[in-house]
């Protein structure tokens, strides 16, 4: 499987270890990554699209064209990037007037959107192409943890552009976690937003942090030993957010946060430092000690 690897902003700027984990894990899954040279921000769906759709579409289309030039679908590790690029791709494929408008802009940069590729999330590729039974056979070090799974919003909605079995009660990420030997623990308000998306983290930091605190309390009450998410922004919110909560209120949760590709890397027997786990704000030591 070949994919154009879209990094987005959060991963290279805040958590480059997630990119490292993907590059280490991909060969075992028989995934070949092609670098998207010159790619920009996706752009962020909760910001650009809310203010000016045409600008959002043009910026997203430029990234999509880079993948079209490489001749392969995009794979990403961030829900926001996935949502923005996937939605823009579908709009431009189906709306000729929007496509013409965007291509007039791209023409000045010798580019043209043709609609020849698709956009995939890493967990979508693993679930649909590798499947859980095959994944179980790849596990070298079973991960016996109680895990709080955080799907994130853009992975599931809007339903018009998503192809999952349920946006309200999804199971696929829980199954991918449990295929590695862990238990996905049920917890209150599991499908609630992490509190970071839609510009909330930047515009209303107190509200954003309060939402994260509520989810963390529910995860802790359910006995979660770690949080696993497929979204770089959710990862940022729960990892750095725990530090902000501690500084603000003195409450210590100390729940390690792992991106799913890092969690998978541990199960495949890769060393933690080669998965970028030591760059987290919340120490990963409890997970590694138990492992």
Mean pLDDT: 94
End-to-end distance: 30 Å
Q: What's the CATH topology label of the largest domain?
A: Rossmann fold
- Kindly state the percentage of residues in helix: 40-55%
CA-atom Rg in angstroms: 19 Å
Name the CATH architecture of the largest domain. Answer: 3-Layer(aba) Sandwich
Shape: globular
Please provide a brief summary of the model.
With 291 residues, this protein is α/β, with parallel strands linked by helices.
Structure characteristics:
291 residues; alpha/beta; Glutathione S-transferase Yfyf (Class Pi), Chain A, domain 2; Rossmann fold; 4-stranded parallel beta sheet; 8 strands; globular
């Amino acid at each position: 499987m070949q994919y154009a690897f879209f990094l987005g902003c959060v991963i290279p700027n805040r958590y480059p270890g997630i990119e490292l984990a993907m590059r280490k894990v991909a060969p075992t899954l028989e995934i070949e990554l092609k670098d998207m040279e010159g790619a920009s921000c996706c752009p962020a769906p909760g910001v650009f699209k809310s203010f000016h759709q045409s600008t959002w579409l043009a910026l997203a289309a430029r990234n999509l064209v880079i993948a079209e030039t490489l001749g392969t679908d995009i794979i990403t590790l961030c829900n926001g990037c996935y949502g923005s690029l996937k939605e823009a791709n579908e709009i431009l494929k189906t709306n000729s007037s929007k496509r013409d408008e965007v291509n007039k802009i791209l023409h000045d940069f010798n580019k043209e959107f043709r609609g020849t590729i698709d956009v995939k999330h890493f967990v979508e590729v693993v679930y649909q192409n590798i499947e859980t039974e095959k994944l179980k056979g790849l596990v070298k070090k079973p991960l016996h943890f109680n895990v709080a799974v955080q799907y994130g919003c853009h992975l599931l909605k809007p339903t018009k552009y998503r192809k999952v079995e349920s946006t309200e009660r999804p199971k696929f990420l829980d199954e991918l976690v449990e295929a590695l030997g862990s238990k996905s623990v049920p917890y209150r308000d599991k499908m609630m937003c992490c509190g970071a998306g839609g510009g909330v983290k930047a515009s209303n930091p107190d509200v954003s942090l309060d939402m994260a605190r509520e989810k963390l309390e529910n995860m802790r009450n359910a006995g979660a030993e770690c949080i696993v998410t497929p979204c770089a922004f959710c990862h940022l919110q729960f990892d750095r957010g725990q530090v902000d909560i501690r500084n603000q209120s003195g409450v210590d949760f100390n729940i390690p946060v792992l991106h799913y590709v890092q969690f998978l890397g541990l199960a495949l027997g890769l060393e933690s430092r080669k998965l970028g786990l030591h760059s987290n704000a919340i120490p990963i030591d409890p997970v590694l000690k138990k492992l």
